[in-house]
Amino acid sequence: MTSEPVFESAACTFCGSGDAQPLFEGPDRLLYLPGEFRVVRCAHCGLLRQDPRPTPETIAFYYPPEYEPYSVAIDEEPSRLRRWDRRYGMRKRQRAIERRCPGGRLLDVGCATGNFLYEMARTGHWQVEGVEPNAKAAAYGREHLGLTIHADELTNVELPAAAYDVITMWNVLEHLHAPVENLQAAARLLKPGGWFIFSIPNLASWERRLLGKYWMGWELPRHLLYPSAGQMGTQLRKMGLVMVDWECLVGAYPSFLLSLRFWLESTAGRTRWTQAFLVLSGSLPVRLLNAPAFALLTRLNRASLITGFARAEGR
Ligand SMILES: [Zn+2]
């Protein structure tokens, strides 16, 4: 599982071109795992991607157990603020979905431990199901939350075609070695008129402009591609999905804190002072003080994470 990582060079996953210009290099700023990684821009279609990248067989090296998305159930979260925060994030997602589709059958791809599915099932509006290749995370969701989770890649799971009202992919696409195949699989499973809802790092975010290579959205080496809104629209169109709109939902402030940490740690070092500053920046009073600015950033769709809403063509 956690053997030494091996790297491969791959052509652009969107257009197949092997021509690319290097953009910048950087380390694993989140977990400090060894290596130096590179982001390139496809000379043909402009897609940004990591190249070379860890192979599918060895990338588990960069997903240790402490990787945050494999988190415990919200009710078991020790910090009250974090508990409130996580539940608020779930409510925002739920409202954004139900404004477009009031209920039905929902599949979450890359559901990790299944917290989102659990919260959606609790509303009584949704019949939920998940797909998660990490066997441990999937087992947690099944055992602790009583969910149906298929422990595999979406492209390997046998699911009924044209059966789902909503398919979600929260911060998953950028982690995939075969994003196009996964998008095709999702498109096949959607009912005509069903919604494909996904979030990705927002290349148009102000934080990326401001902090450049320290931006949290790069998350090397776990992020393998960085599509723009326009590039996503073009890809989805080929699969019979029409981009309807984009919305920044949640996470503007926590992602800013991450970018701030990456910038501070590489300019000032991982000192006690920088740690203290980051703890202070994450405290409730400072957060409240900054809330209006980040609410505006979210409203303008310029926060670090953005959610796309696409619809399967009705037949
Ligand atoms: Zn390309």
Strand arrangement, largest sheet?
8-7-6-9-10-13-12
The CATH superfamily title of the largest domain: Vaccinia Virus protein VP39
Rg, Å, rounded: 19 Å
**Percent helix range:** 25-40%
Distance between the termini: 44 Å
Write the CATH fold name of the largest domain: Rossmann fold
Bound molecules: zinc ion
Describe the sheet with the most strands. 7 strands, mixed
Along the chain, the helix and strand elements come as: EEEEEHEHEHEEHEHEHEHHHE
CATH class of the largest domain: Alpha Beta
The CATH architecture of the largest domain can be given as 3-Layer(aba) Sandwich
Query: In one word, what is the shape?
Result: globular
How much strand content do the residues show? Answer: 15-25%
Count of DSSP strands: 13
* Mean pLDDT over all positions: 93
Could you explain the architecture of this structure?
The chain is of the alpha/beta class and 315 residues long. It folds into 2 domains: 7-62, no CATH class; 74-248 and 306-312, 3-Layer(aba) Sandwich (Rossmann fold). It has 9 helices and 13 strands. The chain has helices at 80-98, 115-122, 135-145, 179-189, 206-211, 229-238, 252-267, 272-281, 284-299; strands at residues 7-8, 20-26, 37-42, 48-50, 53-54, 104-109, 126-131, 149-150, 164-170, 190-201, 225-226, 241-247, 305-312. The strands form 3 sheets. The protein has a 7-stranded mixed β-sheet with strand order 8-7-6-9-10-13-12, with helices on both faces. A 4-stranded antiparallel β-sheet has the order 2-3-4-11, with no helix packed on it. It has a two-stranded antiparallel ribbon with strand order 1-5. Strand 3 and strand 4 form a beta hairpin. Helix 7 packs antiparallel against helix 8 (272-281). It is globular and about 50 Å long. It starts with 6 loop residues before the first strand and ends with a strand. The model has no long low-confidence stretch (mean pLDDT 93). Bound molecules: zinc ion. Zinc ion (ZN) is lined by residues 12, 14-15, 17, 42, 44-45, 47.
